[in-house]
Design goal:
Layout (H helix, E strand, L loop, with lengths): L2 E2 L5 E3 L2 H4 L3 E6 L23 H14 L6 E3 L9 E3 L2 H5 L2 H7 L5 E4 L4 E7 L3 E7 L4 E7 L1 H5 L2 H13 L6 E5 L9 E2 L1 H9 L4 H4 E3 L3 E3 L1 H12 L6 E3 L14 H4 L6 E7 L4
Parallel strand pairs: 4-7, 5-6, 10-14
Antiparallel strand pairs: 1-2, 2-3, 3-15, 6-9, 7-15, 8-9, 8-10, 11-13, 12-13
Helix pairs in contact: 6-9
Length: about 270
Amino acid sequence: MNRINGNKEMLEYGWNKLYPDIFCFSTTRHGGCSVGEYASLNCNEYCGDTMEHVLRNREIVLSLLPGKTARLVMPHQTHGCEVRVIDAPFLAADTDTQKRELEGVDALVTSLKGVCLGISTADCIPVLCYDTKRQVVAAVHAGWRGTCGKIVSRTLQTLHQTFGTEMQDVVACIGPGISVEAFEVGDEVWKQFAEAGFDMDRIARREDKWHIDLWEANRWLLLNEGVLPHHIEVSGICTWTQHMDFFSARRQGIASGRILSGIMIKDSL
């Protein structure tokens, strides 16, 4: 079962108990130092918050992670489908090189211990994956464009091609994001999903306008790649309706905070 930690800074996923060699979570809005629409635990440096607050909030998150040497890696997301492998040469590179390699990236994978892969969302869907056999993790930012572009599928294919991951060994968390009830879209968005081959009877419904179920769309992608149904955990938390606890860009505007969803393989130190 998922649970909010004692000081309400993060949602910890149930896979942590079943697989004690990993730690996966999504932050809430609580326990940080940011103010206004960024209040309070915003860790994203690209949404208009002050760097002083962002860096302090990242320190707070790092203090909540297991081990003493956890390192946080976060990309500059652009709603694309670029997947980046975080390996030893990346960690050994200078800061400017790392920043360049993380530009325009919306999914990260690694087999390195003590490296927390973090992605940012505020209505978009965070998907966290773990290969339980080969000990490889992935963090995916799946907004509607990334979902339509099947970034989850691309990430799983990267795991298979790079590490030999077999899909029956993967467990996945689908974190807080906008629900189908709140996610109203135009006909052009429905058409893009239909043209991409999604089962529209499964992921869409018509009210005054079309509504798309991004949770189910990403679950469908996981299943299509071969992830087992009982290996997929859906938080069921709608950021639109629970915006007092989780950031929602549709509620608050683009100039607002972001949820940090992360996954790491624990370091023994």
